[in-house]
Amino acid sequence: MTTINITREILHRQISDKRASGFQRFHHVTDPFIKRLGLEAELQGHTGCVNCLEWNEKGDLLASGSDDQHAIIWDPFKHKKLTTMHTGHAANIFSVKFLPHSGDRILVTGAADTKVHVHDVTVKETIHMFSDHTNRVKRIATAPMWPNTFWSAAEDGIIRQYDLRENSKHSEVLIDLTEFCGQLVEAKCLAVNPRDNNYLAVGANGPFVRLYDIRMIHNYRKSLNQGTSAAVHSFCDRQKPIPDGAGQYYVAGHLPVKLLDYNSRLRVLVATYVTFSPDGTELLVNMGGEQVYLFDLTFKQSPYTFLLPKKCQSSPGDVPNGKTANSVFNGIHFPSSHICFAENKTQLSSTELPPYLEKIKQQANDAFARQQWTHAIQLYSLGIHKANHNAMLYGNRAAAYMKRKWDGDHYDALRDCIRALTLNPDHLKAHFRLARCLFELKYVAEALECLDDFKGKFPEQAHSSACDSLDKDIRAALYTKSESAEDKKANIRFHSYNRKESIPEDELVLRERSFDYKHRYCGHCNTTTDIKEANFFGSKGQYIVSGSDDGSFFIWEKETTNLVRILQGDESIVNCLQPHPSYCFLATSGIDPVVRLWTPRPETDSENGRVVEDMEGAAQANQRRMNADPLEVMLLNMGYRITGLRGVGPDGSDDEDSSEGQVQCRPS
Question: CATH classification of 3-301+511-600, choosing from 3.10.580.10, 2.30.30.40, 1.10.1040.10, 2.130.10.10?
Answer without folding.
Answer: 2.130.10.10
